[in-house]
Protein 1
Amino acid sequence: MARFAKRVLSIEPSPTVRISDLIAESQGKGKKILSLAIGEPDFPTPMHIVEAAKKALDDGYTKYTAAPGIRELREAIAEKSQKENGIPAKPENVIVAPTKHTLFMTFMALLDPGDEALIPDPGWVSYAPMVILAGAKPVPIRAGEEEGFVPTADAVCDAMGPRTRMLILNSPSNPAGSVYSRDEMRALAHEAEDRDVVVVSDEIYEKILYEGEHVSPASFDGMFEQTVTVNGFSKTYSMTGWRLGWLVAPKPLYQQIVKVQEHTITCATAFAQKAGVAALHGPMEPLQKMVEEFRARRNLVLAELAKIPRAAVEPPRGAFYVFPRIDATVDSTQLCERILKEAKVAVTPGSAFGKAGEGHIRISYAASRESIVEGVSRIGRVLEKL
Ligand code: PMP
Ligand code: GLU
């Protein structure tokens, strides 16, 4: 009988990935489950990006590349970071890897056993397990409904201790679609700056924004030196299956993180990197169209939810999720199980995102308008029976 490492035994499977695998399996067996669970754009990758990958294959981009990525892509990412985000990045600060891996490498490089990483609660399902895999302790920072789903500087200040090494921020956020204002972001960055804590800013939903502005903490005076910014192609260019993203880090952090890349994945897929160049240099119309469609769907899902007396929702300002509070007598896991069983609709329980998510469900509106209307009305019928 194999013995397993405590670190892996102490984490659970990813609730978001697992539910999407289960749905894929059940569809194969002819069962019709309507999925509003997974956070994945339902648009094809734009053609010019696909063509660039095909050409790259024909041109022989089928070997290892330099560990941090091909020069062309690192230059394009540095230029984008400077122009759009005000981050003083050079190509030498960029490592190309799947976004999930950029986070994992950062934690592996910066956290020791006993160290603490502050994570928003509710927050994306993989931050805490990744921190645990790195041997450290995730410390939730309340960012619930009363806080507008944005962690407050006061809460961060209170949670800071001698072992705090890292503050993870995520705007626009998963699961609530909240967007941190410039003042909020500045106050949070200030807490970290005061104490030599590294900020990890997960900006993967940067472009899926309906209201407000996107603010990168690494753009604030002095903050570049202690911030790791992660971003990627999955959401902006509908490229989830390409497994391509990046991080931007100051040189001393870069030098440690890149060793983890060298000893784990070596480099990102060569021809996908060429497609990444085409994405960053190419037309932005496909993205604009996608965001407009998401905006319309957001309005639709809000209008449908307004018909359900037991659901109360804060309109999201970014990403493609709504996170309604549900007035129910059962917890969010039991509720989602009932919705799946009785209505054949998959949604994610709020508790999957942390304690402060309990009482909520996450509905992803990265699904067709028909699925949204049908799915939400079926949820409403289950709630009527509770
Ligand atoms: N951060 C957040 C907040 C996410 O929702 C996700 C899920 N896509 C990721 C990071 C990971 O992105 P990827 O699947 O592109 O690695
Ligand atoms: N991030 C998406 C979600 O939250 C995709 C799945 C995952 O990586 O967690 O649904």
Protein 2
Amino acid sequence: MQISKRVHSIKPSPTLAIDAKAKALKQQGVDIINFGVGEPDFDTPINIKEAAISAINSGFTKYCPVAGTPELKNAIINKLKRDNNLTYSPEEIIVSCGAKHSIYNIFQSIIDDGDEVIIPAPFWVSYTDMVILAGGKPVIIQTNDKVDFKATSEEIEKALTSKTKAIIVNSPSNPTGTTYTANELKAITKVCVKNKILIISDDIYEKLTYDNFKFTSIAEVCPEVKELTIVVNGVSKAYSMTGWRIGYAAGPKNIISAMAKVQSQSTSNASSISIKASVEALNGTQDYLEHMKQEFEKRRNYIVQGLNNIKGITCRKPEGAFYVFPNIKSLLGKAFKKRIINTDIEFADYLLDVAKIAVVPGSAFGAEGYIRLSYATSIENIKRGIDRLMTILKD
Ligand code: PMP
Ligand code: GLU
């Protein structure tokens, strides 16, 4: 049977593929240091687990409303008010099976064939393929470490065409950790409001900003922008709940209801047990967030310094998320252990084969000449990883 052209035109998620490879090697007994994985290494907090167990024991194990239970919608509404000063009604909220699913549903709901979505690069691997699957065209704005991986309002304005439907803003960013200030966001909103471009604000790393950097969601910037923005968030990163698969979107009623229609014909509701756990995550104590942040901040400082001590690598210190995105361009074209490394993909392969370190090549994120390391792993692992890197890049 012939596979559809649409599916032919996309690739499997490279981040998930590298993580799977690293985990498989580990299971075979190989001493892999996994910087590939994009998930917190902390356990899900106990109060959240208990809420899930109690959901099971009380029989909360049946279908529920497609767009999420009123209880979880209320918890999300309260969270958006409390943390972001944004006001939404229940019809403006939808709960899906992870933020990835929320973004997928958005594209399925807003894109007609040939519609364009502006995506600043480096971008999270799934944005472009999800746009393509919906029949749209990703329009990439290339940025680099010299400009802190930030797209400007001028660049956005230049990328607009009559087909532009939306732009994705992901701050803090996967893969760079770059975080836009409120003023930078304000400048972007001016272009979007003037040209009536929908903003998809992927706020999944909201809780992970360092050095007292204050997170701002682009939807908060002004009232006109809120009407043009869909905020995407979830519990995966903030509460170490990647496997529970709960994400949500908040935005204009007509788009949310279109997303619910798509979801009603695909997954139906997200898992009822995870829904109960997420109510507890959002309504319960937020105390552990500070601990997690402090731990990530320590690791970030350590890894950035370690990488910058390696000749040929330069690494910007990111304000958020748990990724670093060092520039390795000056190592390319050189031979290491008699192996010539020409691209970031070959570099990542070399690290895995020789040093047993898993990283994701920058080209997976639309940025050649970089690699992504996730520091959602212990300081000991980071130290061992940096030592190994130093050793294999010596000759
Ligand atoms: N957006 C970004 C930028 C991410 O890094 C991730 C994590 N892969 C997601 C969305 C999706 O997260 P989840 O589906 O686990 O909620
Ligand atoms: N956000 C993670 C990453 O980028 C999870 C993997 C994925 O969904 O792509 O590694």
